[in-house]
Specification:
mainly beta, five-stranded antiparallel β-sheet, 1 helix, 39 strands, globular
Amino acid sequence: MNSTHIITPTTVHSSDAIENRHFCRRLLLGLLLLYCYSFTQAQTNLALELEILNPLFPKFSATTVILSIENKGDVAASNIAVSFPALEQGVRRANEEMDVLSAGRYDIFEGIWSIPSIAVGNTERLELDLYALENPIHFFAQITALDQVDEQPDDDTATFTNEGLLHKFTYCPDDIIVTIPRGVGGARVFYPDPIFQTACGHPFEVTQLKPTDLPSGAFFPVGFTGTLFEAAGDVCGNLLCAYNVVVQERDETVDLELSASSDRPKVDRFERADYRLTVRNNSDTDASGIKVQLTLPEDMVQVGEFQPTASQGRYIPFYRLWEVGDLAAQTAATLDIAIFTLSDTAQALAQIISAEQADLDSTPSSTGCCEASEDDEVILNATSNRPRTNFPLTPNHNQAIATLFPNPTRGQLNVAFEDAAPTVAWSILDVNGQLIQSGQWEEVAATTIQTLALETLGAGVYYLRTQQSTTVSTWRFVKLY
């Protein structure tokens, strides 16, 4: 009789199988912890923005680029990194000064802006003065690192391009309104050329179509004179620009004066100078509707911290127009602006182009760049800001007359005389030869020191002129901020 053997299978637990089971358990546990951590990790909300002060930003022009990052979340953000490789996007620095930023550090060569932290509700800013080397410009910035989780990552990037704008934009000046006293009949008027920002070839062919007999700088009669310009280009076709030159007569008169001071005695190529324009109403009558036009050639560009600063009114950077507005009698208004030069001979013109009252001793918009013959216009360039009167300069150490110190000065100027004099008349002139201050010292003794208070003077180059009997002497000095 045959016997049957029943074999019962047994389960063998190998070491590999046991290790795989433990690995799966650890993996599931890790995924569970990561899932839970994503709900417990601190979250914030950062928003990135790009602002271009000149939104056209055509090739071979400069503008200020502002990159800002705001913490809109409920907790502080830390260890933020923003990628903005500006030098890889068709631009270079417009000047050699350090970039302006409110927090952290920006490495323009690596293109990384590192910010240690941003408090809730705060905004940090990075400002770059850039010069376009190509058309069009495409900017891209992105938040690339952050300790926290950004709950709304859609606003972590910011972009800019001028590609569409460059093909269709043209700027026409506002109507040029010149006010003159009654009975004059008209005025010689210069008006700014239209700005044609297109992708057409350079230089533009700009043709004045109407009126052909009254170009800029001609004598315009009282009334309205229509002006029409056309810019022709192979790519964009023709662009038209039309505005009016208005010459009006008024009985009211004022005495407006425009002056400029600078922190640089001489501005060479690839250098920056800070200027302060001052409009002063020297009359006893209030003035209104004042506008100042800044005319820049192609080899000078505007730069500065965020934008030029006006003590009143507003300055429009792209139009280069300062709308001063109203100015009470015997008061002044200022505009701080920075200019970057691209050549050694660059010159710019600032002039009052409009007021609702007639000026006693000058006519708005009465000159073109770059001349200044009236007190409502001034040249912005230290190389051309020489006194109109070619008076000789007296050495600072002249034993027969006097010594000036300190020079440069911030608050006061000391004049030490070597010889006695019964009276010494003195005057301070600006770089255009215009009188700023004047007075007289009585019974000046030898080795005495006379002191002039200069706190009210803006920064810039000035001249001190003294007269003793028939001896006239002139010194150059620099007033600092």
